[in-house]
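Mods, move this if it's the wrong board.
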Amino acid sequence: MDLDMAQIRAFVRAAEELHFGRAAGTLGLTQQALSKRVARLESLLGTALFRRGGTAVELTEAGRRFLTPARQALAAAEAAVAAAVGTDRPLRVDVWGHLYAPMRTLAEVAGRAGELVLGHGRDLPSVTAALLCGDIDAAFGRVHPPLPAGLAHRLVRLEPVDAVLGADHPLAGEPALRPEQLSGGVLWAPGTLDRLDFLHRFARRFDIPTTATTLNLGLAHFLGEVVADPRRFSLLPADVPLPDVPGLRSVPLVDPTPLYAWSLVWRAGGGHPGVDVLTTALAAQAGRSRWLEYEPGRDWLPEPPGNPGAGQEGAPSPL
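Not the wrong board. Structure tokens:
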């Protein structure tokens, strides 16, 4: 019996998610396309792998027996491809959160991590979908739950966050600001807050009721909009190079200092050997540059959804 790896991959993702819509999204497929692949696999095997009832999906006994060897078959297929193409293929890495310049961190280790080829990711969902379908080998940016099953991640850097505002803002002359001092202003965001987890959680944690959004046309355009209104402010990781925008001010945040968490993400269970080289290089750079310093009470990290208190006044969450 000849098995189709695309069908097996569709089955494994659906079995891990127990939701055909979510599974399809992680593979960059429509739900209809994923359902067809699973149905063809079931027809080939001559048995049902899922029990479907309305929106609920459960594995049958045959599906549960098939899941482990199906995962092993996918891993073996990836190993076979790697053996055929050799280890000289460049590591395909993607990033997201482009406004915050994620390539700054990767550039610190690029010379020690072998040849890297950059992808074209837009956001966390699109990048994780590219990882799961094998279009890229690793990705870098801020991770927040839920992360799809089948992916591994490692916290790489905790970067202090500054407030950015215009020279006419009432707080522009302060040497440093506490986050609650910003509660009377307008948090200007490069998109809707429900898609910007860090800014959303900052606004909720520090009681900033007035928020606004704009179209993300790049950092210079975005900061020009911030400067244009003395009520507006936004947040940027402290080491982001600022464009030459007249009247722009960057002010450190203290008591507590918000930290932006950068992570590396890759497919669990094997893959390109360059992933190990890259994680080792990032860990070494983190030690030299003190990227993972965190002090409870002095620093603030957003709590993961559904886990109240985690990431605040305690050890840094890996997410």
